[in-house]
Amino acid sequence: MSYTITVLPGGARFVAAPGKSILDAALDAGVALPYGCRNGACGSCKSRLIAGNIDYGDYQESGLSEAERRVGWALLCCAHPRSDLTIECREPDAAGGLPVRRMPCRVETMRRLAPDVMLLALRVPANERMQFRAGQYIEFVLKDGARRAFSIANAPHDDAVLELHVRRIPGGLFTTRVFETMRAHEILRFEGPLGSFTLREGSVKPVILLAGGTGFAPIKAIVEDALHHGTNRRMSLYWGARRPQDLYLRELPERWAREHPDFAFVPVLSEPQAEDAWRGRSGLVHEALMEDFPDLSGHQVYASGAPGMIEAARRDLLAHCALPADEFYADAFTFALPPHSPR
């Protein structure tokens, strides 16, 4: 049975067919809603149920706490309607509205950025350029129908080649293929652009960028796009990793900081070793941010990385730094694990 869903505050309406999540039904209808991981981890699509009944579906505690669920919040990427619904969610800015397309691409180049991180450059057909917003991602569509999602690491003004940062996942079929058997000129297929992890351009608030590991990829695209358009907003990047080699493009944000007085870069290592001779910040990356910005009431925070980092940052920044809940934007990286097809 199909149900009608009304979205506040704008009043958009769409119909959810049987078996469709609220988010998928909205995207099918061309209604722009905020979302990120699409698997119940990041919380980007969290919205309030005003009227109606839903099946909450499968999700992770990092995306929706039990306390939030009790007061009417739900994750649109997982929830399915059981009646007509009225929901309330924040506007996804201008990230929506771009057509999602299935396209072929050719592996242009491959370059190791770290022992477990590969830069994968994909060339799309010259007559089929994909429009996207900085911070969005694509999903590879594999032969068995499985999908693997990766953030686009380059800015939209340079779209002839799409840059991805692929971290090797132990036991991961797709990432093992990237590191062991994939070669230049191989043809892949993907769908995109996806996600609403994009800079809210209507705001003038200073921007805090929080990256963990390869969560740097969408942050890189956002920064390059903002600098390309001559932003006058103050931007501060906190990039967390275990050891120095895991800051695989460290020289790039260091150059941004040298060339742009309104940009600051703070690398943070969680597990530096004596042989690293590390003299920078250490510990959890979001705790370094809290030390420097005890009051975030006038800021926006964009966080990208593992779900654990995202959840800890969301919890602590809202509780201890007065960050408004609606000014925390997240892109959580999750992985498909055995026995299913791994990422």
The total strand number stands at 19
Strand residue percentage: 25-35%
Strand order of the largest sheet: 11-10-13-8-9-12
Q: Give the low-confidence spans.
A: 337-343
**Helix count from the secondary structure assignment:** 7
Largest sheet: 6 strands, antiparallel
Measured distance between first and last alpha carbons: 34 Å
CATH architecture of the largest domain: 3-Layer(aba) Sandwich
Number of domains: 3
Oligomer state equals: single chain
What is the highest CATH level, the class of the largest domain? Alpha Beta
Fourth-level CATH superfamily of the largest domain: Nucleotide-binding domain of ferredoxin-NADP reductase (FNR) module
Mean pLDDT: 91
- The rough form would be described as globular
Under CATH, the topology of the largest domain is which?
Rossmann fold
The run of helices and strands is EEHEEHEEEEEEEEHEEHEHEEHEHE
Classify the secondary structure makeup into a structural class. alpha/beta
How many whole angstroms does the radius of gyration measure? 20 Å
Residue share in helix: 10-25%
